[in-house]
Amino acid sequence: MFPNRRIFHRAVSLCGAALLGLCGAALPAQPVAAPAPERQAQIAHWLRDDCGACHGMTLKGGLGLPLTREALAGKPPDFLVQTVLHGRAGTAMPPWEPFLTESEVRWLIQQLQAGTPPAVPPNGFVPAP
Q1: Per residue in 21-53, pLDDT tens?
Q2: Rounded to whole angstroms, how far apart are CA atoms 117 and 123?
Q3: CA angle at residue 83 from 63 to 103, to 5 degrees?
Q4: How far are the Cα atoms of 9, 12, 18, 115, 117 from residue 109, in angstroms, in the given order?
Q5: Is 65 helix (H, G, I), strand (E, B) or coil?
Q6: Which of 1, 43, 47, 85 is the most buried (most CB within 10 A)?
Q7: Is 74 helix (H, G, I), strand (E, B) or coil?
Q8: What is the pTM of this model?
Q9: CB 78 within 8 A of CB 106
Q10: Between residues 120 and 111, the one the model is more confident about
């Protein structure tokens, strides 16, 4: 079937790597520690006002894609983290790395994928960044 053993072994390696990648993506993400309440309020404010400007005030889409649980289902968290931190070239998605840590982005994505985005406090108080 495979006249060249090297090609056969390479094909098996590639298939195995693809299978491991699929299996790894299917594993549940480890919970990420939540930021301090004041920082959560700041992130919630940015999510509503800044992200919401493109992704829709209800996060159901607009210029940007929806950020709902359904829209994010099955998307690898690492891909989403890189998108938030570094933006998307050729799109309106800016990099948020100057404002958010990787841990904060992982927490936010975890909340969005669970369908529980952080809410801006009712009193509207948002501490300065």
Answers
A1: 444 444 455 789 999 999 999 999 999 999 999
A2: 18
A3: 125
A4: 38, 34, 24, 10, 9
A5: coil
A6: 43
A7: coil
A8: 0.74
A9: no
A10: 111
